[in-house]
């Protein structure tokens, strides 16, 4: 029986690479459902090719045109809206849900997928940043495995295979350092969104590329690692590793370190999440160990304030990581549209964290309310910049 996969965010960077993996292993995997937010034309093309049982377009404004594009494919059911995402993930035939949408919007469908006992292949790290405690509790309660797709967490996960209950002494979480790694703070003051969108080693969606440039992405990944592997953040060391070859490592009680290496290619962690514990062949480039040296540096938290803020949010716990995420979603978008500067991003997130009401409970509704309140506060601050 082929495994039935639902891809949330199939038109994005992770989504399209996942379809590539599925195509390469069409004997093992089948697409059950594809979803997108706005790109209905791409979604229709994907549906024509992969013939899923259903497609969902989150933005309801695109429902009619999407239906028209697919009106000669009666085998593909078309749905629209956020509620349809929550519903489709629990369809009985689905074995795995790949969460590859961006931001807070991924939280609700992920919760529904866990409640329906679907294996989660998690790319949407914001879900764990916002609601790590709740998600872990639910996954445990419903006996649902969460397989990391983020390359660093996949590397950690791969390093832990066979280690059973052996204690983790330290997680070594690598970071490329982004395009501004060697810039002074003064130089960072003047960078544009176009500069930030030129990632040195990975090709990804726009939001995560900006997060990588500010190193908020690494801050998120520290939080993600804490929840996925049950390790306190003090035991997670960020290493700036500009080559992006060592995808992360784990140090054990005897000082031994296990790492996973390879060329930067997200298809490997995506495929591993699908096939675990098996490894399947993957066509593509192989790492040439003679080609370049491997370097490691300490991150500069003074320069990359967002990374420091992520540690602070985690230290405070409760809804603070949710505040961190929502404020970041606002400033990330504002920066991409030229409405705030690169350094404004960290400053606004910091001020928003001081202003939004703190709540230490871990309920879904608290996260929804916190997300909404934070967006209001952060948007207001972005607005004030222009006055
Ligand atoms: P992307 O922008 O390329 O694609 C996002 C996808 O999600 C699209 O299909 C889009 O239609 C959909 N989407 C966006 N907002 C939505 C909303 N509000 N409701 C419903 N659907 C929505 O993003 P990406 O780079 O593929 O990243 C996806 C997720 O994976 C992010 O959480 C990111 O942090 C994580 N991730 C990405 C990479 C990477 O290499 N791209 C690596 C690690 C983790
Ligand atoms: Mg990553």
From TrEMBL:
Residues where NADPH binds: 11-14, 124, 126, 205
Catalytic reaction annotation: 2-C-methyl-D-erythritol 4-phosphate + NADP(+) = 1-deoxy-D-xylulose 5-phosphate + NADPH + H(+)
Domain named 1-deoxy-D-xylulose 5-phosphate reductoisomerase N-terminal: residues: 5-132
UniProt pathway annotation: Isoprenoid biosynthesis; isopentenyl diphosphate biosynthesis via DXP pathway; isopentenyl diphosphate from 1-deoxy-D-xylulose 5-phosphate: step 1/6
Cofactor: Mg(2+); Mn(2+)
Residue ranges of domain DXP reductoisomerase C-terminal in the record: 261-376
GO biological process, one term: isopentenyl diphosphate biosynthetic process, methylerythritol 4-phosphate pathway involved in terpenoid biosynthetic process
GO MF, one annotated term: 1-deoxy-D-xylulose-5-phosphate reductoisomerase activity
Record-linked InterPro entries: DXP_reductoisomerase, DXP_reductoisomerase_C, DXP_reductoisomerase_N, DXPR_C, DXPR_C_sf, NAD(P)-bd_dom_sf
Gene3D superfamilies with a match to the protein in the record: 1.10.1740.10, NAD(P)-binding Rossmann-like Domain
Enzyme Commission number(s) from the entry: 1.1.1.267
Entry's family note: Belongs to the DXR family.
Function as written in the Swiss-Prot or TrEMBL entry: Catalyzes the NADPH-dependent rearrangement and reduction of 1-deoxy-D-xylulose-5-phosphate (DXP) to 2-C-methyl-D-erythritol 4-phosphate (MEP).
Protein name: 1-deoxy-D-xylulose 5-phosphate reductoisomerase
Source species of the chain: Hoylesella timonensis CRIS 5C-B1
Highest classification ranks of the organism: Bacteria, Pseudomonadati, Bacteroidota, Bacteroidia, Bacteroidales
Protein encoded by which gene: dxr
């Amino acid at each position: 029986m082929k495994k039935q996969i639902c891809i949330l965010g199939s038109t994005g960077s992770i989504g399209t690479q996942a379809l590539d993996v599925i195509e390469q292993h069409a004997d093992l995997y089948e697409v059950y459902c594809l979803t997108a937010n706005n790109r209905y034309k791409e979604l229709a093309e994907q549906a024509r090719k992969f013939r899923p049982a259903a497609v969902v377009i989150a933005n309801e404004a695109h429902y009619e045109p999407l239906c028209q594009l697919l009106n000669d494919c009666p085998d593909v059911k078309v749905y629209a809206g956020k509620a349809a995402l929550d519903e489709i993930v629990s369809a009985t035939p689905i074995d795995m849900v790949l969460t590859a949408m961006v931001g807070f919007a991924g939280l609700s469908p992920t919760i529904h997928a866990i409640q329906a006992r679907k294996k989660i292949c998690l790319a949407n790290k914001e879900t764990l940043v916002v609601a790590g405690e709740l998600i872990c509790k639910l996954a445990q309660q419903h006996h649902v495995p969460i397989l990391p797709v983020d390359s660093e967490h996949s590397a950690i996960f791969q390093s832990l295979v066979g280690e059973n209950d052996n204690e983790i002494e330290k997680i070594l979480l690598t970071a490329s350092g982004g395009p501004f790694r060697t810039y002074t703070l003064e130089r960072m003051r003047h960078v544009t969104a176009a500069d930030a969108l030129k990632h040195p080693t990975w090709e990804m969606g726009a939001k995560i590329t900006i997060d990588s440039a500010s190193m908020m992405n690494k801050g998120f990944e520290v939080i993600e690692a804490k929840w996925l592997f049950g390790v306190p953040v003090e035991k997670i060391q960020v290493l700036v590793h500009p080559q992006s070859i060592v995808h992360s490592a784990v140090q054990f009680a005897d000082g031994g370190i296990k790492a996973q290496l390879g060329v930067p290619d997200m298809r490997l962690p995506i495929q591993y999440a699908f096939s675990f514990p098996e490894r399947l062949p993957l066509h593509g480039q192989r790492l040439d160990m003679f080609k370049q040296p491997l370097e490691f540096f300490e991150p500069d938290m003074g320069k990359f304030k967002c990374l420091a803020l992520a540690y602070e949010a985690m230290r405070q716990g409760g809804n603070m990581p949710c505040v961190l995420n929502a404020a970041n979603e606002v400033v990330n978008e504002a920066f991409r549209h030229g409405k705030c500067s690169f350094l404004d991003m960290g400053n606004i997130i910091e001020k928003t964290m001081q202003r939004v009401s703190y709540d230490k409970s871990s309920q879904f509704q608290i996260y929804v309310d916190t997300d909404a309140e934070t967006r209001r506060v952060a948007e207001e601050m972005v607005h004030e910049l222009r006055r």
